[in-house]
């Protein structure tokens, strides 16, 4: 029931808990100035049930209840609804009772018989504290939704992802992160590690697509001395280096069948053997894997072990592509513009509405990574303090659709510039594909329409080296 009148605190929700009907009536009368929605109960169990989940802004609580001790009721209300304020109104007129109530979480302590003015002051202050606490909670939630562990976004998909990461951080379950190239699967993996109990232990990343198949087992499991020609000393692999922490297997779908079998044994037994060794080594690692493939389809096609798939996907996570969370684009643009301006040592430019509209309309086949690269390139040599349409690539200015992989040499030639030798253009093309795929050789080869072995040869021919994080 709502009461008439108000005293500037808004329409508060108040629960009166007292087994004396006359006291409840007097308290209700004091609340009329606050335009409060008031409910009454006479027992502690009813109060706990009603107050759970933060339904009320304020509880006026008697300590002498017929079924439960009032202090216990106070503690349970506070444990279930932290932002609900509690004012104790009690006949226990003692310092000890007041101290006990305040320690249990009460905002104030009013003795019976109470002075109406004193109770109104306590109610006013408690409601203000409750409103402030809820506002802080909302702001923290909003800030957390905008940016969490390096990931920026406020869309429902990103909120759900952040909530899943927080939940996963409390466990050591194996996680499989799925999503298109460029969505930020590596950031998700890092967040799972940094938010969890293993945060002070190593985080070791292995890009399975950037390492030749014949070298991947040595990279993962290490080798003993004289395990092969040139192995002059024993070397631990990435799994051992991650002991106690997290092993992040990026693009795990690229592993060949023999390597899949060894990874399965690691997940089953938490033990490994180095190449050339016969000693079983126990390891304590949390495995987080990521892939841009549909591993279930890979299993059906016979390219990925079904038993390994089910071991990896104890807890699957999906990172949505940027085109399915367009409401995050403005936040991401703001974030990347600020970062790029700082990196370039220039004043932060203003993004024009037309440029932002084009950025929002584009489909971003390279996802967040492509957006970041577009912003970084736009700021190079930017003049006038405005990032407008002219600073964006033609593919983005044209609106939604797939981007062309047009290296700068071809863009200049198409605009009437000098025609460069084919060798130089091909090198740029390969480098751009690798940048788009962040060093994922299999993905870059598919994008270029060539085999992975052919791509290896081109890397050697043009002296292209992978970035350290891709080659690790």
What does this structure look like?
The chain has 472 residues and is α/β, with parallel strands linked by helices. The chain has helices at 21-30, 44-51, 70-80, 95-103, 116-146, 156-169, 185-194, 213-221, 238-241, 257-269, 295-300, 306-312, 329-344, 353-361, 367-379, 394-397, 408-414, 422-436, 441-448, 452-462, 468-471, and strands at 13-17, 37-41, 58-61, 85-90, 108-111, 147-148, 151-152, 175-178, 203-207, 222-223, 235-236, 246-250, 271-272, 281-282, 286-291, 315-318, 350-351, 386-387. It folds into 4 domains: 13-141, Response regulator (Rossmann fold); 153-320, Rossmann fold, CATH 3.40.50; 322-404, Helicase, Ruva Protein, domain 3 (Orthogonal Bundle), CATH 1.10.8.60; 407-472, Orthogonal Bundle (Arc Repressor Mutant, subunit A). Mean pLDDT is 84; it is low at 1-9, 400-405 and 468-472.
Give the total of domains. 4
Q: Largest sheet, if any?
A: 5 strands, parallel
Strand content: 5-15%
Per CATH, the class of the largest domain reads: Alpha Beta
- The order of strands across the largest sheet is 2-1-3-4-5
Q: pLDDT below 50 for ≥5 consecutive residues: which ranges? A: 1-9, 400-405, 468-472
Q: What is the general shape?
A: elongated
Helical/strand content category: alpha/beta
Distance separating the two termini: 66 Å
Quick summary of this structure?
With 472 residues, the protein is α/β, with parallel strands linked by helices. The protein has helices at residues 21-30, 44-51, 70-80, 95-103, 116-146, 156-169, 185-194, 213-221, 238-241, 257-269, 295-300, 306-312, 329-344, 353-361, 367-379, 394-397, 408-414, 422-436, 441-448, 452-462, 468-471; strands at 13-17, 37-41, 58-61, 85-90, 108-111, 147-148, 151-152, 175-178, 203-207, 222-223, 235-236, 246-250, 271-272, 281-282, 286-291, 315-318, 350-351, 386-387.
């Amino acid at each position: 029931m709502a009461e008439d009148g108000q005293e500037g605190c808004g329409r508060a929700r108040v629960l009166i808990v007292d087994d004396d009907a006359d006291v409840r009536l007097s308290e209700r009368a004091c609340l009329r100035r606050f335009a409060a929605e008031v409910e009454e109960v006479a027992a502690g169990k009813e109060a706990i049930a009603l107050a759970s989940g933060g339904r009320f802004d304020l509880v006026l609580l008697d300590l002498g209840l017929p079924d439960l001790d009032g202090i216990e009721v106070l503690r349970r209300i506070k444990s279930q609804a932290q932002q609900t304020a509690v004012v104790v109104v009690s006949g226990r007129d003692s310092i000890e009772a007041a101290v006990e109530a305040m320690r249990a979480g009460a905002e104030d302590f009013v003795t019976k018989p109470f002075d109406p003015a004193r109770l109104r002051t306590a109610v006013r202050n408690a409601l203000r504290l409750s409103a402030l606490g809820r506002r802080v909670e909302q702001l923290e939630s909003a800030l957390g939704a905008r940016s969490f562990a390096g990931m920026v976004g406020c869309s429902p998909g990103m909120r759900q992802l952040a909530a899943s990461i927080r939940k996963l951080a409390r466990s050591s379950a194996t996680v499989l992160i799925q999503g298109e190239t460029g969505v930020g699967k590596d950031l998700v993996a890092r967040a799972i590690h940094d938010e969890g109990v293993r945060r002070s232990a190593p985080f070791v990343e292995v890009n399975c697509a950037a390492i030749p198949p014949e070298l991947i087992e040595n990279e993962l499991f290490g080798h003993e001395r004289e395990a092969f020609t040139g192995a002059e000393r024993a070397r631990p692999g990435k799994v051992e280096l991650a002991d106690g922490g997290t092993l992040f297997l990026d693009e795990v779908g690229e592993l060949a069948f023999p390597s899949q079998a060894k990874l399965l044994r690691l997940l089953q037994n938490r033990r490994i053997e180095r190449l050339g060794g016969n000693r079983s080594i126990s390891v304590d690692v949390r495995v987080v894997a990521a892939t841009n493939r549909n591993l279930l389809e890979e299993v059906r096609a016979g390219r990925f072990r079904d038993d390994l798939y089910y071991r990896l996907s104890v807890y699957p996570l999906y990172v949505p592509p940027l085109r399915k969370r367009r409401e995050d684009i403005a936040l991401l643009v703001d974030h990347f513009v600020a970062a790029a301006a700082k990196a370039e040592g220039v004043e932060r430019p203003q993004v024009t509405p037309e440029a932002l509209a084009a950025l929002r309309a584009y489909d971003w086949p390279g996802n967040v990574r492509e957006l970041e690269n577009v912003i970084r390139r736009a700021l190079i040599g930017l003049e006038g303090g405005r990032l407008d349409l002219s600073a964006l690539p033609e593919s983005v200015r044209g609106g939604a659709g797939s981007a062309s992989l047009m290296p700068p040499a071809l863009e200049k030639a198409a605009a009437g510039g000098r025609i460069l030798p084919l060798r130089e253009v091909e090198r740029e093309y390969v480098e751009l594909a690798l940048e788009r795929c962040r060093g994922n050789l299999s993905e870059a080869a598919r994008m270029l329409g060539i085999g992975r072995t052919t791509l290896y040869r081109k890397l050697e021919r043009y002296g292209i080296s992978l970035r350290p994080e891709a080659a690790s």
